[in-house]
Design brief:
Layout: H1 3-29, H2 34-45, H3 48-58, H4 62-84, H5 89-107, H6 115-139, H7 150-156, H8 158-193, E1 250-255, E2 261-264, H9 265-270, E3 274-281, E4 292-301, H10 302-309, E5 317-322, E6 327-331, H11 333-336, E7 341-347, E8 350-351, E9 361-364, H12 369-372, E10 377-383, E11 406-411, E12 417-418, E13 421-430, E14 436-443, E15 449-451, E16 453-454, E17 464-472, E18 475-485, E19 507-513
Length: 514
């Protein structure tokens, strides 16, 4: 191995140790995670087309891909620094301090993080990385030794063996410290939240158990109620979730209201709670995508919350703000037009999971999440329609975003290989606030549309399962689905991407039979 190669490995290993130490410091001392801070900054700074591509390509794994990208870029930069800094170590000092400063500045974008606090993990990371790089340089050098012939290098170059041992030690410590630090950061978030001590009260308006007729019971078909652990998650938080201490949390109702007020978590739970089944969907969901789910939500009707504050006549927009300053905005009319809209505290029979907005979030039927579904809710403000644009609107997405009528084929999956004979083609369809009246399936390019059997609806705000029986002949077949909502609107076949207000088109798959 050339000396440049050894130096590059030393630089990359030193950066890996810096990242691990920064996570360990965050976990042990309750400090901000610099990796999370940088990730949040990258998300905020990325152009809308880049974010749309990431979500479309990687789905709910987009943040994991971003994490891997941050680590990879950091290691590559570390390798470059390692190659050029052996004889000019001042460059390494400048590079590591620059890394630390950039990470600290990313961290202080969070109003709850001071510069003095952010400097601690950044300084520890920089100092540890520099010390590791200097140590690895020393292990791979024996002064002014004579060059070693290539055929003798493996046997006669003790510095190479020393470097390999040193690299293994540094990378091992980096992985251990990073893993422990990440576990501690996640644990501290859950401990701070106080969720484990919460028992949500019974609703004053409970829903009956999901009837058997609402489930078609087919393998591969999405259940009517989506379990919490597989419910889609798209938000601006990076690796973790905001740390919300339930004892100190309060929700404020302010803006264009006559009686602004603030309510604690305990007071919120003391209000009359209701259960509602509502399907939520992300605007980034592509045709046939899985960024959609249906849950049984427990919460206070948003109309009750606003009535207590006294909504003024000039209030046109409801703005929901998260503890991490994410915002949504939707018309006031959506609270009073009969649709289900809640300040939700429970999901599928338990307190809101941390990842889905504990202690409270907004759930508004019929609106894409980016304009309505604030998680980790901290305030609700009534404004004029033109007075405020929520988080995604200046980034190129539509200000009004009703969920479009959509349908999806769950089984069989695209490019499946089937045996000739009887098969069941099934999926789900949704049009929250309008309901689904009909689903039709085309089983072959030239085939006629066939009306599917539908499950019984839980409500107009929920998706419905559908199924058709198909005697599949040999060959390659294209299968399409379209839905008609409760207002008679047939799902359009026009193919459009998610931006700026939701994808359209018929979900289409291809299967081989024979």
């Amino acid at each position: 191995m050339s000396s440049k190669g050894r130096d590059a490995m030393a630089g990359a290993a030193a950066v890996a140790l810096s990242l691990g130490v920064s996570e360990l410091a965050a976990g042990l001392l309750g400090l901000p995670s610099l990796i999370e801070a940088v990730g949040d900054w990258v998300i905020d700074a990325s152009p809308t087309p880049v974010k749309e591509w990431a979500i479309s390509t990687f789905g709910t794994n987009d943040k994991l891909v971003l994490l891997l990208g941050i680590v990879l870029v950091s290691l590559l930069v570390g390798a470059l620094v390692g190659m050029i800094a052996r004889r000019r170590f001042g460059l390494a000092i400048a590079a590591f301090l620059g890394f630390g400063a950039a990470a600290a500045l990313a961290a202080v974008r969070d109003p709850s993080v001071s510069l003095g606090v952010a400097v601690i993990p950044a300084g520890l990371a920089a100092i540890t990385g520099l010390a590791a790089l200097r140590w690895l340089y020393d292990r791979s050098s024996d002064g002014e030794r004579a060059p070693v012939r290539l055929e003798d290098e493996a046997a006669e170059d003790p510095s190479r063996r020393q470097l390999m041992i040193g690299l293994g030690a540094v990378l091992g410590v980096a992985a251990l410290s990073g893993g422990i630090g990440r576990a501690l950061v996640d644990r501290s978030t859950r401990t701070v939240s106080g969720r484990a001590d919460v028992a949500v009260p019974a609703p004053v308006e409970p829903l009956p158990a999901v009837p058997e007729t609402a489930e078609l019971g087919l393998q591969g078909l999405s259940p009517v109620i989506t379990p919490n652990d597989v419910f889609y998650r798209i938000d601006t938080a990076f690796l973790g979730v905001p740390s919300v201490e339930v004892q100190g949390w309060a929700l404020s109702i302010e803006g264009r209201v006559d009686r602004p007020y603030s309510i604690t978590y305990g007071e919120l739970l003391d209000m009359p709670l209701v259960e509602r089944d509502v399907t939520l969907s992300c605007v980034s969901n592509k045709v046939g995508g899985d960024l959609v789910g249906n849950a049984r939500w427990l919460g206070v009707p948003l109309s009750d919350m606003l009535d207590r504050a006294g909504v003024r006549g000039d209030a046109e927009q409801v703005v929901g703000r998260s503890v991490d300053d994410f915002t949504v905005g939707f018309p006031v009319e959506a609270v009073y037009d009969g649709r289900d809209s809640l300040v939700a505290v429970g999901m599928n029979g338990e307190p809101l999971p941390l990842e889905h907005g504990f202690p409270a979030r907004l759930v508004v039927a019929g609106l894409y999440g980016y304009v309505s579904a604030t998680k980790w809710l901290s305030s609700i403000e009534l404004t004029g329609w033109d007075d405020f644009d929520a988080y995604w609107v200046p980034r190129g997405w539509a200000k009004e975003a009703p969920i479009k009528t959509q349908s999806r084929i769950d089984t069989p999956t695209n490019r499946s290989a089937l045996e000739p004979g009887m098969h069941r083609v099934a999926g789900v369809a949704w049009a929250p606030t309008r309901g689904i009246s009909t689903v039709e399936v085309r089983l072959g390019e030239e085939a006629e549309w066939v009306e599917a059997e539908l499950s019984e609806p839980l409500s107009d705000n929920c998706w419905r399962q559908w199924v058709v029986d198909w005697d599949a002949p040999s060959g390659t077949h294209r299968i399409q689905v379209r839905a008609t909502d409760g207002e008679g609107n047939v799902q359009t076949d026009e193919l459009r991407p998610p931006a700026p207000d939701g994808a359209t088109g018929w979900h289409t798959i291809q299967v081989s039979v024979g």
